[in-house]
């Protein structure tokens, strides 16, 4: 059953690459362009997964157990992680799928991310991480504190996300020039036609739901997750302990494979070597990602996507702190380079500054 993790990862990497589903861009756009389209798409994933995860729990397929809320580590780790993803040019999952596109900067960020996650979780700084995460409050979910059915929160979240999606769909659409189609049928749909942000989000949400029973069947009682599997992969390479290679390790390997397949099929794969400044940012950003994710208990997937779907305090606190950390990094590294009003820079200059050197094209709607 471990092999199912590989197939889920391939599907996730393929969909995220083709849909240009960049969580870093979603958080960054709030501050740089005041645009919430991709944040709304991200919340579609959370809402879809929330319906699925509580349905699986009600059916007895999985058993959700609320845990204490490590508030201090979540706040500190979330802020660090949010700041780091701007430097690295992508969050944990984004770094994986961009590594599959051939971005050398993402390879470097991925290496330091996995390494420092291992250092923080099981290495020399594991004691520090444990002590930080030992500062907790007892109640860990919104519905347990409010003493209400989680389905009430699912309904409210779904309604709010639905209103936000409707708002964005009602906005005027701009037609962009495009080359004539060179493929037809399914090949055109999969590899050439731009993917809609919200359709991509629904597919990712369905993949996230499928991950739960498949992962549980192997004894790994969790859904999608990136940080611990990345740490386990590093520890396996060091120790050779085969027990570390669980469903999650196959998942992250699958993301690389799936994104590579998508990039090759769409003609977007290309080895891109960054300049020295981007190399330093990638290495530093990746290291801080590992530190932040270990402290917070997860990255933009494990916390901001999976824990939020369960209405845990950890997930929603991490999400808010990651957005705040991203805003701080954007202000220090992107917005200060914006041209003054009337200088002729315009939105194009902002967009260019927002994309790290050597990174993939901006997200497509």
UniProtKB/TrEMBL annotation:
TM regions (residue ranges): 6-27, 39-63, 69-92, 104-128, 148-165, 195-214, 244-263, 283-305, 311-330
Keyword Ion transport attributed: no
Keywords: Cell inner membrane, Cell membrane, Membrane, Transmembrane, Transmembrane helix, Transport
Region (Disordered): 342-365
InterPro entries: Sulf_transp_TsuA/YedE (IPR007272)
Main localization, broad class: membrane
Family: Belongs to the TsuA/YedE (TC 9.B.102) family.
Name used for this protein in its record: YeeE/YedE family protein
Lineage of source species: Bacteria, Bacillati, Actinomycetota, Actinomycetes, Micrococcales
